């Protein structure tokens, strides 16, 4: 029987190897380095946790099912899944096409691949199909990569259209699904070859661990990511897998609450005279409002606000009592940050300006607090 994502998430233990033998509601943490080859028989043999581990395999089986892929590698951080994607799909002198509005850590990694391996990085605005077509037509692009929504600009990319364009030009297509998560959209079903994400954020949901994952569409690509994960030691340790799974069954209810709270705050801020612009895909003023609602089931509680001045943005952050000045998102606690200062400090001012981000842009990640308390905190901070 074909199940909805939240049904699978509520029965995660069933994805564990040997689940049938115990019927346990949760699953054992095999916190071991090695396995005795003489003690095992059957189809699946474990030898060393870097290559394979039953605890990690449970999470990989779950992510494979909910993303609709053929195989997955859980990695020790979200950025490790981006690195693993590059290690798997790029070689010296490769060309990659990337949406210019991307996470600062991804941007830094691209610079490293450019400097060390002479990878040509073509940045483009993925809302401009002519621009993308031109690059794809004139360059041997191996990989197309974007986030949707993008971080920090909250652009919504038409994944189906980009997938078609990538295929027409024999390029692989990868989507960083960290913001929307698989509860909301499944990029592999829209034409992507890889869906990768930081589980540090909404998926683990409690800000207690850093981790990531990458899911491949075909068995061949799945085999390749496993090969490079083992070679480069990218895989996640079993204790961290356990921490991630504690949050997973409640992903849907948390996403609903993050979305609901963030809409109230975004609508409130939109009316304030100290604000220039609020960019939230759930607001009618968002340029891809229709696509956002069509492509995603739930909208994440992350959005950007342009204050009238840098001084006001800084005063606001300094004076808030509930909001922490923190990077990352998707935790129960609300947080604010100036991307130019923290999460996207690897961009120059000009590079940020090109994607519409300035020093007075504040990124909000709305948590699970009472929304009236959050509004009172904003009011007192700006007084
Ligand atoms: C879109 C996106 N991808 C990847 C990452 C990297 O994840 P991690 O911090 O878990 O390494 C982040 C981190 O903020 C992110 O925002």
Topology:
Layout: H1 5-9, H2 19-22, H3 54-67, E1 71-75, H4 78-89, E2 95-99, H5 104-117, E3 120-124, H6 129-138, E4 141-147, H7 159-168, E5 172-176, E6 194-198, E7 212-216, H8 219-232, H9 238-247, H10 251-270, E8 275-279, H11 289-295, E9 302-307, H12 310-319, E10 324-325, E11 335-337, H13 349-354, E12 361-365, H14 371-382
Parallel strand pairs: 2-3, 2-4, 4-5, 5-6, 10-11
Antiparallel strand pairs: 1-7, 6-7, 8-9, 9-12, 11-12
This protein binds pyridoxal-5'-phosphate.
Description:
The chain is α/β, with parallel strands linked by helices and 383 residues long. It contains 14 helices and twelve strands. It has helices spanning 5-9, 19-22, 54-67, 78-89, 104-117, 129-138, 159-168, 219-232, 238-247, 251-270, 289-295, 310-319, 349-354, 371-382, and strands at 71-75, 95-99, 120-124, 141-147, 172-176, 194-198, 212-216, 275-279, 302-307, 324-325, 335-337, 361-365. The strands form two sheets. The protein has a seven-stranded mixed beta sheet with strand order 1-7-6-5-4-2-3, with helices on both faces. A five-stranded mixed beta sheet has the order 8-9-12-11-10. The protein is globular, with a radius of gyration of 21 Å. The protein starts with a helix and ends with a helix. The mean pLDDT is 96. The structure holds pyridoxal-5'-phosphate (PLP). Residues 77-79, 82, 103, 105, 147, 151, 176, 178, 198, 200, 210, 212, 328, 343 line the site of pyridoxal-5'-phosphate. Pyridoxal-5'-phosphate binds at residues 77-79, 82, 103, 105, 147, 151, 176, 178, 198, 200, 210, 212, 328, 343.
Descriptive keywords:
alpha/beta, 383 residues, binds pyridoxal-5'-phosphate, Aspartate Aminotransferase, domain 1, 14 helices, five-stranded mixed β-sheet, seven-stranded mixed β-sheet, Aspartate Aminotransferase, domain 2
């Amino acid at each position: 029987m074909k199940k909805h994502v939240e049904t699978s998430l509520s029965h995660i233990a069933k994805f564990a190897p040997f689940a049938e033998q115990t019927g346990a509601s949760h699953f054992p943490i095999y916190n071991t380095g090695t396995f005795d080859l003489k003690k095992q028989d059957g189809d699946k043999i474990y030898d060393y946790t870097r290559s394979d581990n039953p605890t990690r395999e449970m999470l990989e089986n779950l992510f494979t099912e909910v993303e609709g892929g053929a195989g997955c590698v859980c990695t020790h951080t979200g950025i490790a899944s981006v690195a693993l994607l590059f290690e798997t799909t790029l070689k010296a002198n490769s060309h990659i096409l990337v949406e210019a509005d991307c996470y600062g850590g991804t941007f830094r990694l691209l610079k490293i691949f450019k400097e060390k391996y002479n990878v040509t990085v073509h940045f483009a605005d993925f809302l401009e199909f002519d621009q993308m077509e031109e690059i794809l037509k004139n360059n041997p692009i191996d990989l197309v990569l974007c986030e949707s929504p993008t971080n920090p600009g909250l652009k919504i990319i038409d994944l189906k259209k980009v997938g078609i364009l990538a295929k027409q030009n024999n390029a692989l297509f990868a989507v960083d699904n960290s913001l929307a998560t698989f509860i909301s959209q499944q990029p592999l079903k829209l034409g992507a070859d890889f869906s990768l994400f930081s589980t540090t954020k909404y998926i683990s949901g409690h800000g207690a661990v850093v981790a990531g994952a990458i899911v491949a569409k075909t068995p061949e690509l799945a085999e390749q990511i496993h090969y490079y994960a083992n070679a480069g030691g990218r895989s996640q340790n079993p204790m961290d897998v356990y921490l991630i799974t504690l949050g997973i069954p409640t992903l849907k209810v948390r996403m609903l609450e993050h979305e609901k709270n963030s809409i109230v705050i975004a609508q409130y801020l939109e009316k304030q005279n100290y604000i220039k612009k609020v960019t939230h895909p759930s607001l009618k003023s968002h340029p891809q409002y229709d696509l956002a609602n069509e492509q995603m089931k739930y909208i994440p509680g992350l959005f950007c606000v342009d204050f009238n001045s840098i001084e006001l943005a800084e005063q606001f952050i300094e004076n808030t009592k509930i909001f922490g000045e923190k990077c990352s998102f998707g935790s129960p606690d609300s947080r604010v940050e100036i991307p130019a200062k923290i999460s996207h400090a690897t961009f120059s001012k000009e590079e940020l300006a090109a994607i519409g981000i300035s020093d007075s842009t504040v990124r909000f990640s709305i948590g699970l607090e009472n929304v009236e308390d959050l509004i009172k905190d904003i009011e007192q901070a700006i007084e």
